[in-house]
Design a protein that fits this description.
Distance between the termini: 66 Å
Helix content: 40-55%
Pfam families: TctC
Family: Belongs to the UPF0065 (bug) family.
Largest sheet: 6 strands, mixed
InterPro entries: BUG (IPR005064), Bug_dom1 (IPR042100)
CATH architecture of the largest domain: 3-Layer(aba) Sandwich
Strand content: 15-25%
Shape: globular
Organism: Ramlibacter albus
Number of helices: 12
Keywords: Signal
Length: 328
């Protein structure tokens, strides 16, 4: 009996020593600067949101939160860096829609998002918008579909590249509408927008923030937004839903993810603090100026959202008939 008690006591003490360092790490977190890795260049929407979020998070956690830009390969470079980072709670990824599209448009990623990264929180989501040249005889989605049916393959639209969110989404819109459209890939939205304004391109599919000023000046015409209902940022523009295309309400979103293996206590603490940051009126105003709706929610909410996004973009990639590309 004494021997059994001694054995059980020894096992309990061993377990305590094993878990003590982890518990101490979680209790003291954070005690040094935190890095938020952004996969796009300074000035991009994800960068601007990350910097506003970093400011608020740093104030709450009482440590410096630094934004590092690691652009390239459609955010794959940044995602891989975080996937391979130590799981100590000091390196995080500003995730985005591209993390849900990349598995379907690239041959082999250097990481497995589901296994190597852990979603934490959804920061915000921005509806996408199709804007047309003032020289094209269409003013909304219904007219665009009718025009495309009369002129198969003639109606052109630009996007940020093959396999981009907007390329995939427009192709699934075309498939469900029974039309053929001509995709013109660009390396950036600004050149495509200028081509639309100049009449060299029929339309451009991008974010509201990238096209709103041109639309308000009359240089472009808004055809539709991809939100479920009309967007408060462009209330006079119809949604896909009201035009009869249901289930395509996927905007450009931003979130936060961590390397897999970060202790759950740190993940949950980060989520709680992030939600408090997102309640700040200053943060809300800053994001809404970019036509981004603040989201938030639990870790489980973000996981469910990401799984839905993966399935949605899988269908979109199939509709776009995208041949998986090599990561460059």
């Amino acid at each position: 009996m004494f021997r059994m008690i001694k054995t059980l006591l020894g096992a309990a003490l061993s377990s305590a020593f094993v878990f003590a360092p982890a518990q101490a790490q979680e209790a003291s977190w954070p005690n040094r600067p935190i890095k938020l890795i952004v996969g796009l260049t300074p000035g991009a929407s994800s960068d601007t949101v990350a910097r506003e979020f970093a400011k608020g998070l740093g104030e709450r956690l009482k440590v410096s939160v630094v934004v590092e830009n690691r652009p390239g390969a459609n955010t794959i470079i940044a995602s891989n860096l975080v996937a391979k980072a130590p799981a100590d709670g000091y390196t995080f990824l500003i995730s985005s829609s591209m993390n849900a599209t990349n598995p379907w448009v690239y041959e082999k990623l250097p990481y497995d998002y589901r296994k190597d990264l852990k979603n934490i929180v959804l920061l915000g989501e921005a509806p996408n918008l199709m804007a047309a040249s003032s020289k094209v005889p269409v003013n909304n989605l219904t007219e665009m579909i009718a025009y495309a049916k009369k002129n198969p393959g003639k109606f052109s639209y630009g996007s940020a590249g093959v396999g981009s969110v907007h390329h995939l989404l427009m192709e699934i819109v075309a498939k469900r509408s029974g039309i053929e459209v001509n995709h013109i890939p660009y390396k950036g939205g600004s050149v495509a927008i200028q081509d639309v304004i100049g009449g060299n391109l029929d339309s451009y599919f991008g974010t509201i923030s990238s096209t709103r000023n041109f639309i308000q000046r009359g240089d472009m015409k808004a055809l539709f937004v991809t939100s479920e209902k009309r967007s408060k940022y462009m209330p006079n523009v119809g949604s896909l839903e009201e035009h009869g295309l249901k289930g395509l309400n996927s905007g450009y979103w931003l979130g936060v993810a961590a390397p897999a293996g970060v202790p759950d206590a740190i993940i949950q603490r980060f989520n709680r603090e992030a939600n408090e940051v997102l309640k700040s009126q200053e943060v809300i105003d800053r994001l809404e100026r970019q036509a981004i709706d603040v989201k938030g929610g639990s870790v489980a909410d973000m996981e469910r959202f990401f799984e839905r996004e993966l399935e949605f973009w899988k269908e979109a990639a199939s509709a776009a008939r995208v041949s998986p590309m090599a990561v460059q």
